[in-house]
Batch of 4 targets.
Target 1
Amino acid sequence: MLVSYKWLKKYIQIEDLTAEEIAEQLTRSGVEVDIVTPMNKGVKNIVAGKVVACEKHPEADKLNVCQVDIGEEELAQIVCGAANVGKDQYVVVAKVGARLPGGMKIKRAKLRGQVSEGMICSLQELGFEGKLVPKEYAEGIYQFPTAVTPGEDVIPLLNLDDHVLELDLTPNRSDCLSMLGVAYEIGAILGREVTLPEVKEVESTIEAAGTVAVSVEAKDDCPYYGAMIIKDVTISPSPLWLQTTLMAAGIRPINNVVDVTNYVLLEYGQPLHAFDLERFGSKEVLVRRAFEGEKIMTLDGAERTLSAEHLVITNGKEPVALAGVMGGANSEVQQDTTTILLEAAYFSGITVRKASRDLGLRSDASARFEKGVDPNRVKEAGLRAAAMISELAGGTVVSDVTEYDALDRGEKEVTISLAKINDLLGTAIDTVTVKTIFNKLQFAAKEDNDIFHISVPTRRQDIAIEADVIEEVARLYGYDNIPATLSYTATTPGGLTELQAKKRKVRRFLESVGIHEAVNYSLTTAEKESLFEKRSAERIKLALPMSEERSTLRTTLLPHLLDALSYNKNRGILNVALYEIGGVFHTNEAALTTQPSEKTYLSGAFMGLWYEHAWQGEKKPVDFFVVKGIVEGLLEELAIDADVRFDQAEVTGLHPGRTACLKVNGKSVGVIGQLHPNTAKAWSLPETYVFELDFHQLADQDEKVVRYAPIPRFPAMDRDIALVVDENVKAEEVEQVIHELGGDLLKHVALFDLYQGEHLESGKKSLAFSLRYQDPEKTLTDEEVTVVHEKVLVGLEERIGATLRS
Amino acid sequence: MLDRLQELKEEALKKVEAAESVKELKDIRIAYLGKKGPVTEVLKGMGKLTAEERPKVGQMANEVRAAVAVSIEEKEQKLEEAALAEKLRAESIDVTLPGRPTVKGARHPLTSVIETIEDIFIGMGFTVAEGPEVETDYYNFESLNLPKHHPSRDMQDTFFITSDLLLRTQTSPVQTRTMEKHEGKGPVKIICPGKVYRRDEDDATHSHQFMQIEGLLVDEGIRMSDLKGIFEQFVKRYFGEDREIRLRPSYFPFTEPSAELDVSCAICGGSGCRTCKQTGWIEVLGSGMVHPNVLRMGGFDPEKYTGFAFGMGVERFAMLKYGIDDIRHFYTNDTRFLSQFHRV
């Protein structure tokens, strides 16, 4: 809502305050003013002028040489390029020395040999927005609708001395979608009276033949419909004051009749509509729901297909307006219109909102109806407009209002005690102060023993319950005056749940390892998902995505992590390690009917060097075992007390020979692997490794308990062996056999070398292990160890054909 | 004989003096002090001496031996010291070369803000509650006093999946879910961080996905002044002791009265600058006293219980704290951006 400061002064005495001061007061009490804009964008020395003569430029077809009376002794010769300039027009003249917005200075000039002493201006050149300039002047210079005195300063004439407050209204304060509403608000803040506009008694002649019949079929959608006929009007541009007032409020002037309806809409917040009665098609107004598929061409020239949920005004047969949203083109007021049917109605907010949303059509009218207009101002606004039309367009109001009226105009009653107000606010406001606040708000309030009985004026549709009234008291009392206290609730132990604490633990661990945390969008594309289609899950798609790129809920964190690697790679950052902990969404339903399962995944992606030391020349590219080590560290960090295994696996999108599935107690909880070269190619990535774990499953495992184990008192004995085995024998397998054969004395087995190459038979590999023997009760002798160790070696050969490497 | 010994002594000492290595010294020791050395040789001739001369020569011989041995030892030590000094000189390094860096991954700034705020409220006895991101219309809107067709739904353009399921537009549904779990009994003291989604074109100040932290305190006798009190604590701990707060009336469907919280501008200290649009204040969050309908729908009796709720944008907090100018930075995962936050 744009509020003209000058216009506001018609309703409330604010001469002592600047527009900025008013804005600050409004903002502090709950009606936020975004910005205060001066209408004058830097205009200086601009006057009204009368074109006394206008001739074609002898040397240039498109230029005119005008002699303009600018109130000085001599006429000013001005060369003007506008096509619509002509003799006897009253125009805006920027004299030599004048300033235009943007700091442009007007100088004496010579155009194709003709002296030009100034410039005849368009409204755009004065800083008006093109879309607000009346259409007939949009492509050329502006002409005053009536005679003005040459030489007169145009700044007050065009209201350029005004300031406009732009309100950022919250949806509850639709009362401030009107000048009167804003005036009441300021009145409440300042404790000043509001002067209502004078609604003149219109001279009406009862003329049975001229009246229309009104009937309403959709009674819930339209509890009130009033129609008035104004005959013998002359359509013309509005007077200057009306044009400038509308432009300041952000509305383009059209003609005197339409401008009046817009003026009253802004003044009262009550949308009105003027039909051309001759084009209306009948003398019967019927308000009904549209038929399914019924069509109407709205004023903006678009054909709209309606549904049975939309409300239309009809002439008994066909629709002439989309109720509360926009009029129909078929009954539009035009230049030749002489008889007006003026509508002042109350339409249900829900119905208007539905139509407006379904059709994607917002208007000043729909914005107001949606939020509920003041039922006590509907008819008054109609009368006010009728009188203004009669005055400005020279018409006669034919009859009193023909109406259908089932409108509830009752005021809401709220009862509240002083104690309740103070209890909720934590204040000690006294009775008198509360009474004063209600007075300022112009709420009728009766007080009895600190109990207030309030009648809420119907203009304040947002106030219905105690809490609403308390807010009114609080904001006028001043939020600044509410003390700051600490609640006296029972002491509660704050903290994180186990799962939340583990999430932090995982983050700290991954940070310590050197991996940056990424945060990605949950919405992705079906294509990216399909590259990791490891589950046969259904995809969850938005009903109306804004783009294909963000249309599907992710089931894996990997695609966006790869996007991030790719983003960095394209910027020359080649060594990147990222992890993300975030939600993924799975369902088994083809068409979603219940909330999907939301899991938290923990995933990582790595490319390039894992470690690099510049001047020492150390370089370590990331590989499978770097990532496995990180995952193992993670499991250690979470102290998972369960059987954990890494099994060779094949997973879509990953390298078939370099992928492992992580199993906890036999259940798969994630994967580690190298990106399949084809997948890497899809992201233009080099050798890349990833892991993806189901965090909830990991965090749900039992935790190992820390228990002290006695420090061994007797020395251990280490024996190293290098075994030659078939290359497909898994290291883990060998280790397990060693453990089984080693018995109680074998305390620890560690792989320390892997060799495959020229010194070995092909198809073989060598694995070197270090075995540690120890007895907690005594010092082992060499002989005792040898007995067990031999048993291990023999067993290894028998069970997996492992021989000692010579 | 005595002269011979004296001669030998001088000769040996000269050689020791001239020796340049431990090896040479060893040779000298063998040569002069060994069993076949000249001193021993001289002593072998002792039989020819008189009983008077014998002890004199013996004493002299011992003196010569001792003097040579000491001299060798001293020289040895000198040479070792010189060798060590040379070794250390050779081992010297350029200490200005850069050290071997330890690794440190960066915490995402949004995580950092969330954890900081969580910890402040945990300290005040709050717990952290979470809820689903795909929500039902009921929890996201209706239970928060936003019935279907309510004009305020326009404040939040929604990604619908079906007519009833949607991506939550706010973390507020966690309020109702938590209140339901409490079965009408206070106190409820939670904060709820999480992702939310709105139909916005992504640009420098808008993101279709962002993070919020919701807070809720419901108990008997909770007042708006308590809201102000807790904000004072929170703002001073998050933004700094010198920051002031003010509440400004506002509107949210789920609170009444409602308030925006402004914090005095850190850049200008309240005198007005570009950051605060010359107002001296920066808007940081929305809040208010829980609407009776919301309490009722959460299973609490609004005649008995009151409470307050607040919601803040995590990106906004991060942008204010670190001076970040474009919300899209949070979601591109440019490591040149992320790595700046490894200290937070």
Target 2
Amino acid sequence: MGFLNVMLLFGTAALAVPLGIHLLNRSRFHSVEWAAMHLLDMSDLQNARRMEWRSLLLLLLRCLVPVVLAVCMARPVFQTAAVGGASGRSTTLLLLDDSYSMQGEAVNRGAPQSGWQSAADIATTIVDGVARQAELALVGVGGEARRESQLTRRDARPVLGAISRLEPTRVAVDLVGGFRVAGESLVASRQPHRQVVLLSDFQRVDWSESVEAAINAIQQQWKTLPAPPDLHLIPVEIAPQGNVSVSFDAASDEVTLLGEPLDLPLTIHNDGDRPLVALPLRILIDGRTLVSRKVDLPANATSQLLFTIDMETAGEHQAVVEIDDPSGWVVADDVDRLRLETLPARRVLMIEQEVKSSLLDCETGFVQLALESTAREVGEGQAALVRRVAAAEVREAMVEESDVIVVANVARLPDDAVAWIAARIAAGGRLCIFAGDTIDVGWYEQQMGPSARGPLLPWKYGEPQVAAVVDGVAAREAVQAGPYSDPLLAFFDDPQHGQLDAVSLSAWRQMEAWDAGAAAGDARPEDVERGEEPPLPKAAEVLLKTASGTPLLVAAGYGQGRVFQWAVAADEASGSLPREPVFVPLMQRLLLLDLSKATPRQVVDRREESTLEHLTAVERASLAQRLGGTLHATAEDFLAHERNRQGGQEIWRWLLALVVVLLFAEMMVAGRLTRRGGQ
Amino acid sequence: MPAPSHLLDANDHDRLASLTWYARGVVEGLHVGMHRSPHTGVSVEFKEHRPYVRGDEVRAIDWKLYGKTDRLYIRQYEHESNLTATLLVDQSGSMTFAGTRGKTTSKHLFATRLAACLSYLFVSQHDAVGLGLFDTEVRTVLPPRNRVSQLEHLMQALAASTCGGETRLARSLTEMAGRVGRRGVVFLISDGFDDPEAFLQSLSLLRQLSGEVVFFQIWHPDELEFPFSTRTRFRSLETPGLERILDPLSFRKTYQRNLERFQTAIAEGCSQRRITHVPCRCDESHADLLARFLSRREAG
């Protein structure tokens, strides 16, 4: 217990006033001659004692009034077991919700302001209030939680500067990340007391059970800190209002090829109680408006729209959908962004032993058809530009300008061609080698094996194999069903994309890994001397097998490129693969999609704050209890709590109330004592 | 000390002129009066005839009846005697109490005026009136007389009476009981401040010896209302040095309880002993009190 105005404690001397009056009254009395002395007999001792006690009680009350009043004026401070020692030093970490929903209108007694402005005011008040006794840091939790300012000791300027710089993000709050960042930041704290203050509008959607569970897990980690932080929750009251949100539907990992129609599915949700008519909606690609439409949306309804857009250029694009409510109702999630990439047309060089006039007579005819099927019209937005050449006519320029090289049932290539191909693949190209009945296994081993100058071949080819003959009929070998481990083939885990296990094979060439003794990538002395040491082939992996386990497709990285080695031919000679519908997407994925470089569609902003519904006061209190935190209605409440922690709680209000009670009790007791004829 | 003439004023005379005291029973008296006597004798009220026996006065023979019946009969008449009233006035110290709220009639003055009224009443009825003044003991005794001059003696004695000393009612009354000779009526005018048990016993004795006893218990209004609000020291009027300092506000309830208990004990004791108990306040008119008492007594 301490006093802010100790001098006023001298006021307790006023105790002497009622005491003196009492003693004076006891010594002063009126004297009368009295006849009926026998009636003054105190035979009713119980009553007499009761009277005496009441007199003493009255005296006590009258003495207590000035004493308590004096103590009250001295502003006593009731000190609990102060955490952090007498100085009350602490580390205060502000988690500031700068998510999209904070743009809503704040419940404010003064001028209208947004929830964000209100949050900034609260944060500023807190920072100003605790700056002298605390290390401070600010963590923004809108979008991806990030530290906005480093821990500073007794210097509020960095945090105040960060607060003034911050603007509400267009994304949802990242509470879990915020708590995680807070824990990481507190590790650096050296103060004996630590606290995390969360300023948020407490949107209901943000506090799911999983989020709470994750936060609880983080709080468990906090307990391992030398001084586990206290948690304080301060709500930013935002007025309930309707909202319209728009968002691209769930992102797909599909990469769009140039020339493919781009489907952009949207979801618009009206979270308000009034219907919206002719709501302006725009879709912008790279800042250029491609779609502008007005949509109607009933109250509390969700509408899904699909827009198809032609991408004119390849590369990375940003699609933005915007809605605009002239009434200003829309405060959150009125914009959504989608990042997507359109791959350019790939130049494909198909090398055959002999180029034939009929497309389907060529070894790579089916492959060409598969790759060119992405184009809607010839010459417009083709994803693949195919060039077919005979093995003997391969030139270095051809190889260099090709992104994909297909070698189909070629007996042998010119010696220099292997080097050109190896250089191109190492620079990021793709090589697809199909086997067949004409390939020279020895040449392949010698020129493309691990000891070759261009060790492109992942595995070595063996003898041709045919399906077993059962009862005089050649059986067919099926392809292994999914799931497939490689990302390229995992696409076919969904049967809608094609069924690889529907493929049946009649002949193939045996493939097996290189001998361990044939060390891959052994550079030849002359290459080392020229500084042209070829890249080491990466470990090969079997992408596809037959149902019996025979390797069908083997892939290996080579430099920045990749080599696919088939055990079958590219035409119908090996089975039904070229005729199966799955052949088209399979070839496109293997040869055109460079997943290592392409970025799949990705929603830039997470948008989960469309429903501007907030936790009620009771729910917030319950949440605070579950999180083991303390809920404060205002910044002033928090600062009062902080003052209490640092220096104790002022209890003069309670004492003033006690004075009133004492006065009332004095009136009651005095009334009972002085009431005529009463006790 | 009031002058004798001040004990009765003109109003009292007028008020008392219309009042009469009738004895409830037969009373013994030496003089012919207005009250029935247990004795037959000279009177105008014929009672009965009885046969003459030797020794009867010859003059009592009804000669007319002898002429008719030839037998001797004695005429007997109702004897009407005078009443002997004895006034016992308490002049103990407690009777000096005149209150604490200005100049009011003291209990003693009220008692003497009441006694004067009674004296006047009985003398005017040719009844014998005696007086006893007492405190710790009997101080003054005037034997009952029915002469007019008795009234003057009574007035002088009452006017000369002074209060002081403790009250020993029981002892004084017992003493007075022995002095009240004939059966008559005894008026005790006192505050009755004594041990109720002993007091009532002495009253009972008085009742047995003197016939009718009327106890005028004098209360001062302050004794009934206890009108004190500040801390007060109560000094005894009777016992020097006896005092009690009290907070009247907190003691009032106890006082009133003690008062009620005392009044109840006296009233019930008197009722059981067939003693007429007349509580009276000394701030009321003694003549009115007497008139009211007599009218009530006459009524039943």
Target 3
Amino acid sequence: MNNAFAELLTVWTAGPMLSIGLTLAAFLMATWLFARFHRPLWMPPVLIAALLLAAVVALSGIGFEEYEQGARWLTVLLGPATVALGVPLYQQMHHIRALWKPILVTLPLAATLAAVYALGIAWLMDASPLVLSSLAPKSVTAPIAMGVAEQLGGSVSLTLGGLLITGVLASVFVDWGVRWLKIEDDRIIGFALGLNGHAIGTARAFEISPTAGAFSSLGMGLTGVFTALFLPFAFPF
Amino acid sequence: MVLLRGFLVLVMFFLLGEALRVLADLPVSGGVLGMVMVTFTLMLRGRVSDELAEASRGLISVLVLLIAPGVVGVFFIVEQFYGQWTTVIVALIAGTLLSVLTTLWLMKKVSESAAGDGRHE
């Protein structure tokens, strides 16, 4: 019985279909669970999907290496998906024109600081170069951040973990900050959510209002482009 | 067919981005360069075709599916970064708190002064 299962596993993991099937199933289940539990801020769908997958991959004995090799057939699509982000960015262009002054002043400084604060703290705490280059793109939307981490020689897995934590924290901290600084402009709230919390922050912004959502997409897109273009040049390792 | 045509455009821009990365020796990923090129092309054309808009929406809506396999890796590198996790967590919490407050404060100040300028003009 055990032998037959081992043999079946060898056959199944010879091609990528098992990984693809598992990933699709986890994605659909995570989407369903997320809606079922009233869209909790601290538990985005990507975290649910990853937890489900990690459990199956570890318990079934497939192993992460084997799983990842098959899942690569899906993850190669991140390339064109990153290109696709240019379309909503273009569609937000009229927002950029209307508010270009605050955006132009805030974006380069805030996007740089989003990376520098965390890097500075990690550096002071003696983090290894691998950890530093993995954390550098922490505020950037995932497909772009994965590219940046690869370019800097970081660990993509650690980057994605950092991204996830950052997105969840940013949603919570913006909530606090807005109350503390008495900000009522949805455009500012949205922009701050997207700039710091990428896609997870943007999902939160859409719950506040459509305006906040639009500005969050904008902040996310611009931070992504800015960080991806400048971080690899500025990073001193 | 409509989706495929839009997807072909995205793949072509990705390949162009990769070409630019290699030929100009840029440390930026091909996808990002492709995204910048798409944005500029659309700005020059002044409109986005339905095919491209459809294909983009489709891909963006399954981003979680494409990213999830990478996130799974986090649970398998716990040992690899043994002793570094406190650093990682502290840097993320304090760094994110500081950068959120900075962004909000900056945006508030700048948009207030922009509104002030408007009143004086």
Target 4
Amino acid sequence: MHSPLEPILGTINQIILGKQREVRLALTCLLAQGHLLIEDLPGVGKTTLAQVLARVLGLDCQRIQFTSDLLPADIIGVSVYERDSARFNFHPGPIFSHLVLADEVNRATPKTQSALLEAMGEQQVTAEGQTRALPQPFFVIATQNPSSQIGTYALPESQLDRFLMRLTLGYPNRLAERALLAGEDRRDLIAALPAQANADLLLGWQQAVRRVHGAPALIDYVQALAEQSRSCGLFESGLSPRAALGLLHAARAWAYLEGNDKVIPEHVQAVFPGVATHRLRPRDALSGAPAGAALHELMASVPIR
Amino acid sequence: MPTDMTLPRHRLLAWFTRGGADGRVHSALAAQPMAMLLGGVVLTTAPHLWRIDPLIACLAVLLTAWRGWITWRHKALPNHALVVLLACFATASVYLRGGTLLGRDAGVSVLVVFVAIKLLETRTLRDTGIVACLCFFLAITAFFYDQSPLAAAQALVATCTVLAAMIGLNSIVPSWRAALKRALALMAQALPVMLILFVLFPRLGGPLWSLPDSARAGMTGLSDSMSPGMISDLSQSDAIALRAQFDGPIPPRAARYWRGPILDQFDGQTWSRTRTFPFRPDMAVLRGRGELTRYEVTLEPNNQPWLFALDIPGQIPPEANYMQDYQLLARDRVVQRLRYRVSSYLDYEALWPGGKSARVRALSLPDGSNPRSVALATQWRADSATDAEYVQRAVRFMEQQRLVYTLSPPLALGPHTVDEFLFDSKEGFCEHFAAAFTVLMRAGGIPARVVTGYQGGEINSVDGYMEVRQSDAHAWTEIFLPDRGWLRMDPTAIAHPARIGDGMARALRRGDGLPLLMREQFSWLNRLREHWDALSNAWNQSILGYDQAHQRNLLERLGIGALDSVLRTVWITAGVALALAAASLLLIRERTADAPAQREWNRFCRRLARQGVVRRAAEGPRDFTERACAALPDHSALLAAIGAAFIELQYGPQLTDTPRQVTHLHRQISALPF
């Protein structure tokens, strides 16, 4: 049982060293038609990840560096008067691409953020009274820099809910870093990569993910997880129904990526931290316990019958 | 809607069969349990079909058959409007055919046809639930007509089928075998509750509600009058008239005269009964000789007040009246099976001639009737010195007249029935003999009257009860001689002693239309019938005969007789409520109980836990199997197979052969060497 995406994963892992799990989650998020939020320090390979994903999957990729003076029009595009044709022509912004890397999304003003988030939610943008569909597939990787919070507008929880997953890449381990330092320039490597898929193929995979079987017993488990998150008292608020739906869908994509035609609890557990981490704020956040520990405690407390 | 107007008739038909407004044309119910439910409906309604109006019965059968066809061929259910129309039509038919919508027959008709109609709009599980409830109610209504063990067995089978159908309809993978097994288990579980309710639930003094007269129409038995042919008609019936259980020795056949209605009024054709008054049979009017014969009679309902007792009743049950013609009467008509203790003197002197008018009646003959008999009697009277001599002459005449005892005597059409019998046809049944002899006695100035009742009775060798059937119906004569009181004279026995000595079959001519069970070639059938009768008697005595008095007795013996019925009802209600609460708790546990695959997996986990490989609560099946394989590498192949099989069953798409897969999983787990 091997998924057609196995070679793609292999290729990406040649570029992003020592981050198999995160790469797999990122691809899962893409297959589940969700958007990804990466919260990490600069220089750990966020951009590289986006670029390699786009390259290998045969998608076009745009990077938007969010700054405090970024305006919605800078993302969506503007209409410019052209003298030759004597009328306004719409110049699509960087959001009109398959894969958008929104770097340091928390640096932009809420107005600009919401323009991006709306596009993510609706899969379309409205500019100057005209609604324009975004290319399909459409996948946003947004990054946040957690270290310097001065002059940033942290995404509110309601907006965070729009991201299917939040990941941290973290520092590579010793071996991976060694290989990175000893190896060739990543940018050259990416440029040399052949495209192993295209937009249509990816759309087909996304459709196939929807058909992965979720048995009643599994749905019971997902429901139990959501209920436990609401009632266990570890978190300020529990998982929303949208989150539960996202969890199930992400688990489907994970199962598909593993080459399975059905979801089992292990798939749910694999994606659960990614899906839940930005939606559940631990109640005793100030005591310094990491959010991941609470999530694992939650998972351990929900029995698989 | 298509706009094609060329075939309006077909469009109308199509519209009617198009399906409901909700657009669900086909029923989503599984075909097999649905067929089972149909079978249950058929079983429940079948006994009613003969009782209700044929038109309604046909309608119900047709509609049920339609639903069967729909289920079989996966056709569309009819339109809602058609169903409503059918319901209106059915109600109207019941009303028009029966003249009412109230009462037992109309109610049952409506129920039967509505079950069939409900089937036609049975789309969802909820609908099947309604059908099932209707079936259960219909099964109860069958007891309004028939309370025999056969009816009970029929209702039991029908209930079980409907239950199994409901179980099948509600299970994900229906299997009629499993459903039936479960239904039987359910019935078995209900048994103790049924027994407790049967024993403890307060009995009502009478029937739950009074049945309409139509319920009594079918009862057979002796009536309060006798005309030629009536008793011979009755003797075609094999139905049990009464059963008796004797305390002491069983009286000989010749003494088995069951005294019934006394007929002393004669209009030339018909003998009828006169109302007399009760009296106390003291030593002045009744002298018994020898031991009292004590016994208990279970009388089948006959819609008449008579209670039968061996000639002549001595001590009588408290609820009966001893009438001046030595007949026992109940206070009301016997419409339910009645059990009473009574005793009789087989040898007696009954000295009360009756009141003045009764004495006149016992001698009166209509003017000008049966002139030949009267002439003969007048001649005998002139020749005889005493009453006894006169009676002797009459007896000798009966013996010598070569009268033929037959079940099918020629129909007496003339006005002088006795003359025709004695001198022309010479063929008759007991009523002819009795009538003729009584007329002869009266014509000679001896008070006489006709006594009807039963003569005979067979001991059922299975349970020892004496069974007296309608075919034992008999008529004889009673004459009054001043010094000896009323004397029983059986002219049939005089002419044909074999009738009394050997029973009717021997006395009748060969080829005469005997009741089936009296024919000798059917002795095996007779044997079967004996067993069946013993069974229904046991049923009657212990199940149907368990009435208020018996209940009180039993409860007193159990030491809870002191509770009055209100308190008992409260206790029972509380008990039932508790039982229901416990049942619902069980039900909730059952609901949350594990699916078969899960049970197998739990068993697997328990087995591995004994090997030290304990599954953590939140550990998924694949992780656990991998860990188990690593911990027990010797069995890794089997462990992995079990894990994969469980994952497939629990998380894979629904399989068509899930039960088989579960069985396979079970075997695999059993194959583990630890």
